[in-house]
Every structure is written in C-alpha cells, then in structure tokens.
Design a protein that fits this description.
45% strand
Length: 320
Amino acid sequence: MNINTWMTMLPLRISIHTAMTMAQLTPINSSSVLEGTATNTGIHAEGAVMRRSELRATFALQGGRTIMTDRFYSAPLRFSRSFRPPGGGSGLCIYTSDVSPGVLNGDHYHSKWHLDEGTHVMLSSTSATRLHPTPSLPSSVNHHFQLQKGAVLEYFPECVIPFKGSSSSLTATFHLEEQAILAYADVWSAGRIHRGESFQFNKYRNLTEIWQGDQLAVWDRFGMEPGSDEPKQSAALLGFTHTAALWMIAPGLGAAELELVRSALPQDGRMLAGASLLASGGIGVRLLGMAAWELQEQCLQIWNTVRPDLLGSEILAFRK
C-alpha cells in the first residue's frame, strides 16, 4: 500500500519547517554551549549557532492496522517512505532520511516517536548516520521512543560512522509499558574504513537506555577518544573496527529463546558474538566485526530466530 492510500484512512496533521539561518561559527568550549540562549533555529552561543533539526511521529490503530496520525519534521531530517510489509498484518514500515551530507558541525538532531497501544512499527533509515568533522561545535543525535501497552517497535537503523575530526554523541531512549516489544540494533563503525580513516575521530559518546515502566532494563554506555584511548589495544574492541548491540525486550523471552539466539550467532571467526539474558527479561547480544553490513545482517538474522513465535509473523526483511 502506498503512502497516499494509507494517509487517507485517518486525518493526518503534517507540519514541515524548513527555514534555517546560519551565523558564522567561531571556536568555543563546551561550557559556552551550555550557557547559550535558545533561538528559532537552535542555540546561539558567542556568535555560533548550533542548528537543531527535529522529527516527530505518532502512531495509532485504525481498523486493526497501524496508521501514522501525526508527524512533524524540519530539514534536513524527513520521512522517506512508508509501506505495508508483505504477508499482511497490522504493521507499518517507515524509513527516515537525511537530505544533507550528514550530521555537520553544530548539528543537533532530535526525533520523538509515540506508539499507541497495540501499534506495530518497523523503522529504519535510508543511509548511515554520517558524523562529519566538528571544528568548532560538537554534534549530537538523540532519539526518544514511547511504547504504550502492547506496542511493537522493530528499529534497525543503518550504521553510525564518525568521520575524521568529529566530536559527536548519539543517545537512544526507550520507554516501554507492559507487554510492549522492542528489537533495537545499534551498529557502529570506527570511521570510513575504506578511506583509511580508522579511529581518526576526536570523540564519540553513545548511550542507550531502555525502561520497562519504572524499571531500568538497559543502560549501555560507550565512549572513545582515540587520541588518548589507544583503540587498537582496547579490550572492548579486541582489534575489530565495528561493533553492534542488539536489544530484544518482550514478554516470555527466556532461556529457551536464548538458546535459539546463541545457535544463530556467527561461528566462522569473522565476527565475535555473545548473548545473555537481561535481569528484567529480554536478551542482549554483542557483536564485533570488520564490516557494517555483516553485523547488520547478523542482527536481523538473530532477531528472526525468535520473531515468528513472538509476533506470529514471518521473518523481517527491509527493502532498500
């Protein structure tokens, strides 16, 4: 079903803001950023502008199918496409995109997603999150998801790539109500490896938080400054250049499902992987590798070992 068809099923409020002004950037320190004043386009601090781009979406059930009922985006973020996956079901597949070259100096991206009770969203991006050099201002990407009772979110974005000279952070926060289901794959590269930029970024910070009601189920933090951390000797990377974390939260995920997941872990030596149960219920998987696409395919394959029983659906495959 194309976007024009499903948009007519329920009134859809759309707000698109593209106006953006820029001031000349000047070098400042982090304390100056925190003391800046808000503007229409971002935060103004000592002659520099931290540009803010937003994307928001709300989903509800209508006639047993997930519908986008409200959306907002400001350039360069946008919704790229949406469609119904093959095989029927209530789910809706959404792709987002960045129409700029990537996350630039002073850029701050914020997305907010609200899934009403019983909705099912499969979410991905059309290209990698490219973190460009930040000579004067750091950049950041922040995602926030709210899943109401029984909602399902399958979030498999493309790889995060910090470029040479970048200082950036990425945060993903999930709030799950009872019976909600989440599968989230976070894939990261040490840089544009094919261009010889391995570990040449200045700083990178990553934080994933997953809440089940008032209980913190996952708090996963990763940070690196190659100039001082000696990444090639890092015990967290063991000589690999790519990492992935797959978080699967669902009622009923236990020891039997963990064995299925472990049976799907790579055994050929190109990747290193492990899986364990989470204290609050669910399964966490860690992978190390040398190529983003291999980790992405592996994460999807692992999720598909338990997906049919959890969701009563066929395996998930993103069409790009």
